[in-house]
Amino acid sequence: MEGSLNSSPPALPDSSDADKPASRLPRHIAIVMDGNGRWAKARFQPRSFGHRAGQKAVRATIESCLRRGIAALTLFAFSSENWQRPRDEVGALMELFLKALDREVDELHGHGVRIDFIGDLCAFAPALRERMTAAMEKTRANGKLALNIAVNYGGRWDIANAVKQAAMATQRGEVAAAALDEKSIARFFCLADLPPVDLFIRTGGEQRISNFLLWQAAYSELYFSDVLWPDFDADCLQRAIDEFARRERRFGGLVEKSGQARSVPDSRDQAGSQE
Ligand code: FPP
Predict the structure, then answer these.
(1) Which residues are catalytic?
(2) pLDDT digits (tens, 9 = 90+) for 120-177
């Protein structure tokens, strides 16, 4: 992540959100950061150039979330399927993650960011794994923004992992198999301590979920942007948040009709909520 976070982000939400009631602001934003390769290609550069440029957008997005008082931000940095990319691109991404960890953790820690890596971390080189673990341990107690970086992550992997954990819990006699339900299974998923994803953003023009947060995004509002990830800035995020604020969320219920309010639960009350 290039550049530097402003030395002390204001504690109050950004003025651009001042007109929105708290329930109209997403508490948890997830982003599929797509378009780095095309951004680089348009500049006759290798794909790794696009990934490096993408770090700037990562930094701008973290900064915006801190300023707005968003509780959680989850970024898809490397999917389980990304290993299929050319060796040099995978290598460049790993180096980039390593350098970003060395460079950024102290500053993010200073801003009260809790860093978490989600995904099957076993596949990574020990040096990278150690840095990830150290970053998570160092920032564990922070409460300003939960920043989750999904690496070697896949939504189906997350589901399979949760099923395995649930099966092991039944074997230990902690829960009867017949008693397993959405609520009891929810705690075995990644991000179980966070609100479900309210706003799911994908940049780069494609309109798909690509195996990201299949469980956690069950009731997300989906927002697709044509902007390539390295160009995604604070204004782009603002547009996504504005669009989110205009959406009517029903969670399968009904909305208020001629004064006869029928309560529509907040996303945190949904079955399977991770709270
Ligand atoms: C998808 O674009 C992007 C990735 C697979 C990598 C995302 C990584 C970063 C933004 C680097 C910084 C991240 C951190 C957390 C330090 P693509 O390569 O598929 O683009 P394309 O669709 O244009 O080919």
Answers:
(1) 34, 82
(2) 999 999 999 999 999 999 999 999 999 999 999 999 999 999 999 999 999 999 999 9
The pLDDT of 199-224, averaged and rounded, is 97
> Separation of 91 CA from ligand 1 center, angstroms?
13
Q: Cβ(55) to ligand 1 under 6 A?
A: yes
Rounded to 5°, angle at Cα 251 from 247 and 254: 85
Residue showing tokens 């794909």: 47
Tell me if 97 sits within 8 A of 115, measured CB to CB: no
Separation of CA 138 and ligand 1 centre (Å): 26
Band (197; pLDDT cuts 50, 70, 90): very high
Cα–Cα distance for residue pair 195/274, rounded to 1 Å: 6
| C-alpha closest to that of 194 among 228, 217, 173, 171 | 217
Q: Could you tell me if the CB of 58 is within 6 A of ligand 1?
A: yes
Domain residue extents for the chain:
25-156+197-246
CATH superfamily assigned to domain 25-156+197-246: Decaprenyl diphosphate synthase-like (3.40.1180.10)
What spacing in Å lies between the alpha carbon of 21 and ligand 1's midpoint?
Answer: 33
